[in-house]
Specification:
globular, alpha+beta, six-stranded mixed β-sheet, Maltose phosphorylase, domain 3, about 35% helix, about 20% strand, 14 helices, homodimer, about 600 residues, ten-stranded antiparallel β-sheet
């Protein structure tokens, strides 16, 4: 199965069209503005001097590079002079300020630090994102100035690490460059970049112990605990880990490295079967923004970084090409509608970095009594973070979101995600009309396409289809040219594996792929509520959320003064419970919030 | 209501007799031996020099002082030459090594540190414990050498803090000396010690910000956020806080300070109505060993220090004298049978410092992926800790445990705790025969006592009594000389206030005052279990625990590979569930453990 690139697909309507337009019209502008305000864009002038404001940070290149990558995807499918001018200006600055030997980094150029001496300073991570942005911009516009700068930089990195071996470390502290180098190789065909990607992958766990990245970090933190081909457990910083796994697949596919692919399969199963939130969030602890032990998925302190959900989508999209099961697209669906979209406000201007599954406002004063600070995620989205990796990561993902919808396989077009859209590729056309995920009705027409495979969402128990089909590996195989399918959507009460202690006694609610939550603003004291899964539950469309909301029934434990009481003495009253999509929470001010709700 | 001192009461039989004998015969010896091995006893020689092993720590005086206090209580009611010789030897060393001006501290005497310059070095805390030990030893034996040494030391402290004002700080970082000084005042009658106690209490929150005790600690941490008379929320390090509150009552009662007593009432309600575990544990976070926000009572990471349960008993015992409600004795009962007794192993040799309400063994490898260390309590009791405050605190509490049983009030003897025992005081005699808490049957005989008041335990719903009684403020008032009472014990399913999020959907089980738990060693995967509170449940006596165990029914969720599943697809099997007393857990090796159990 080969994913079909976003630019062959046009979104016509519906949820993702709305979100993509919002991204183009609002979020891209909003992030740009905040990047200007914080000095990130100006930093490409490389004129900062000690004492001036807005001292560049060592990850700023990557923030802007991701924005450029997103803008490039927009330019690939439509003209946008503003975006193109902005990029061209930055590229001019890159060309102007690139070192003679090819080096480019806005932080190292203006500070006293020595190049390639500090493994944790994201130098190669920034290089990777710049390379990806350059390839994307070249592929969008045909302009090669940026690409040529980055080829020169990549050549320098090759020389430093593989020829001179003059760097103080062997592999990057924050992975990313691995997949960027494979992308560069696939763009221009020079095998040395593939070789360099392989070097960075194969030499993990080969660094001195002194180079475990962050202070006090352990080998696990930056995937230095064992060689990648031996890995079977997702460990450490979740985004670093997933970016590495992406690079491992990219490299392995090109280099034919079966050991690495086997490792990726093991890692993928470890994540999706043991370490993933119902939202598709991953990386459950803020301590190192890391994966922890299997089934340790706390809700209130969930880190579940927006970037990690995006990275899981990236990893899964790659895995999807190697397998033939619908399970990959199921995970992508889970992550994109929930974990990722929680990362951006309804107005498109503000972002979450962390995406906890519970907010208990009263606990936010917890640190006043303590010596150490307990970390509690913020409760409202903000326009920019000091470490602002997530906003432009959403930008670039939404700019090309339709690239997740289709794939091909021999003479077959595979529909993995249901977006109201038209696919045109090599004289083949597939058109999907749907309000999904508002309802499960999907009309599919095809031209010059022998067969289509339509994913059966894992949440779906009843399929209505007006033609014959064969079900295989979670896909419906259909030869008809015009077909109407309905994946019956009903509110589904979800139980967690009992090993996930944090969800005990609770139920989550899904409608189609959408995970729901309750907020205090709708329901008062949400901790006193229990959902009655046997009572009538109704679903209605909400203009505010462009998704459905759910009205359920349950009971509320009456307030009591005692800390503990005999079960016989507990009193309840019947109550309505309003659920909204998890991704839409925190759009009406601070509020308590729960995904996993007590059950009657 | 005035508590009756332990030495008027003789334990004859039953749970507390067993535990007190074990303390005298085993625990006191075991702690002594470990204190010898670790250099704590030898340190009173004050001959340590840099480069030698066993460098004294600044809290070592207090560890040994608490052991002496416990040994003194034993000596008060029985001869014990070994204990007395040990104390006399230490006292000789104290006398020998006391500074000319009265100063005594084994750490400051042998290290380079300047006296009274470092607020967080427990100097006054050690002085307080030494003073308490000296008073206890004097009251037990009539020997006054130790007492005289400590009077001299107290006089020096008075001079340094109240006359010369030469210390670098105004009040101790770790409270304790306040109640010790009142005790010294009550022993020898010199008001200056009461005055000094008042000084240390009234000047809290009067220190420079630089003196917030531990590095990075905040004012709240050591009760420096507001003056004590204004306090209404228990804050910071739980043991420090509770020792302060004890000192506040002791001082306020003697000095007639109503404002401080009102503050203690507010603080007491805050703790017992909002911040206490079902076990009577308090201080829910390891970060600063502190109280946190109301209803924040996590189970797995519960700090719930043994010393804090003991300190809660001490505070409550004082509050009991000021009120007329049985609620105080209820809290003492909760804390002594559960939170405190969890702190010591069944064989009397090993101790817990922290007493979590959940153990999830798999989470103990959680830190391998992370940068910071997540703190998880240990899973088996140990013989000694580096910071070994808890073991001798249990020693001194068990040595005088019968001091919690009785009080008097005008012409009435009050029975607060049910221990098989005889009270003899001023020609009055009360005798209690009972197997409590194995069952609720209590026979009480009295001589020369007009009236008795018998606490009605808050967990009790049915009382059988063979004579007339009046119920008032949670007590039965009885004039008969021989009465048989039965507080009907039935397994009770306990629900937590819904504001305690960590207990949602769960039930705890109590039988009488005993809180139960399930262990993996009995029940396999305890996370898959749900207790069926509607099914038959049986209770049987266990010789191993000297308490009952409980056999209940429930269901086990069958293992499944999926992380999340539709509720309809969850499968269960019926199963037996064995519960043991919480205080007896972790006596058979490492095991998963839960107090709050999923409910069917």
């Amino acid at each position: 199965m080969k994913n079909i690139e976003f630019y062959h697909v046009k979104l016509n309507n519906g949820y993702w069209k709305l979100k993509q337009d919002l991204n183009t019209d609002v979020s891209m502008q909003s992030v740009w503005k905040r990047f200007c305000d914080t000095g990130r864009i100006g930093a490409f002038e490389c004129s900062w001097k000690p004492g001036m404001e807005n001292e560049p940070h060592f990850y700023w290149d990557s923030d802007v590079a991701k924005w450029i990558e997103g803008a490039s995807y927009i330019l690939k499918v439509s003209d946008n002079k503003i975006l193109e001018d902005r990029i061209d200006n930055i590229v001019s600055l890159i060309e102007k300020n690139q070192w003679k030997d090819g080096y480019f980094n806005i932080y190292y150029t203006v500070t006293e630090n020595e190049r390639f001496t500090e493994r944790n300073n994201h130098e190669l991570y920034c290089a990777g994102h710049l390379i990806e942005a350059a390839v994307a911009y070249y592929e969008a516009t045909g302009k090669d100035k940026f690409l040529n700068c980055m080829i020169k930089y990549a050549d320098l990195i090759y020389k430093v690490f593989m020829v001179d071996k003059s760097a103080a470390f062997v592999t990057p502290g924050h992975e990313e460059i691995e997949m960027a180098l494979v992308r560069l190789y696939k763009c221009i065909g020079d095998k040395k970049y593939l070789e360099l990607a392989g070097f960075f992958i194969k030499n993990r766990a080969n660094n001195d112990k002194d180079w475990y990245c962050a202070p006090n970090a352990k080998a696990y933190y930056c995937q230095d605990h064992i060689p990648p081909e031996k890995m079977d457990s997702a460990e450490g910083h979740a985004v670093r880990a997933l970016y590495l796994y992406c690079g491992m697949i990219d490299y392995a596919v090109e280099a034919g490295d079966k050991e690495l692919i086997d490792a990726c399969n093991r890692l993928y199963n470890d994540i999706t079967e043991r370490k993933m939130y119902i939202t598709g969030g991953v990386g459950s602890t803020f301590m190192g923004e890391a994966f922890t032990v299997p089934y340790h998925l706390p809700n209130e302190s969930a880190y579940s970084e927006t970037c990690a959900s995006i990275a899981l989508i990236m990893f899964t999209k790659r895995m999807q090409e190697l397998g033939n099961s619908s399970k990959y697209a199921d995970v992508i669906e889970r992550a994109m509608y929930n974990g990722m979209m929680d990362g951006i406000s309804l107005d498109g201007r503000c972002f979450f970095y962390e995406n906890p599954l519970e907010i208990n406002l009263k606990n936010h004063s917890i640190n006043r009594s303590t010596t150490m600070e307990e970390h509690i995620p913020i409760t409202e989205r903000v326009e920019v973070f000091d470490c602002s990796c997530c906003p432009p990561n959403i930008n670039r993902t939404l700019s090309a979101i339709q690239g997740l919808a289709y794939a091909y396989e021999d003479n077959t077009i595979v529909i993995n995600q249901f977006m109201d859209s038209t696919l045109n590729i090599d004289n083949k056309c597939v058109s999907v009309k749907t309000k999904y995920p508002i309802d499960g009705k999907i009309n599919i027409t095809k031209e010059n396409v022998e067969k289509i495979k339509v994913r059966i969402p894992s949440w779906c128990k009843n399929i209505r289809c007006d033609c014959e089909y064969t079900a295989k590996n979670g896909y419906m195989e259909i030869t008809e040219d015009n077909v109407n399918i309905e994946f019956e959507m009903r509110p589904m009460f979800v139980k967690a594996n009992p090993k996930i202690r944090s969800n005990r006694g609770c139920t989550a609610v899904q409608y189609g792929p959408i995970v729901y939550c309750i907020e205090g603003v709708d329901n008062g004291d949400i901790y006193a509520l229990s959902l009655d899964t046997k009572k009538n539950i109704t679903v209605e469309y909400s203009d505010e959320y462009s998704l459905n909301i759910i009205n359920a029934k349950g009971r509320r434990q009456l307030p009591c003064a005692d800390l503990y009481m005999s079960a016989e003495n507990v009193q309840y009253e019947e109550t309505d419970i309003k659920l909204i999509p998890y991704s839409c929470h925190a759009n009406r001010g601070e509020s308590d919030m729960l995904v996993w709700i007590n059950e009657v």
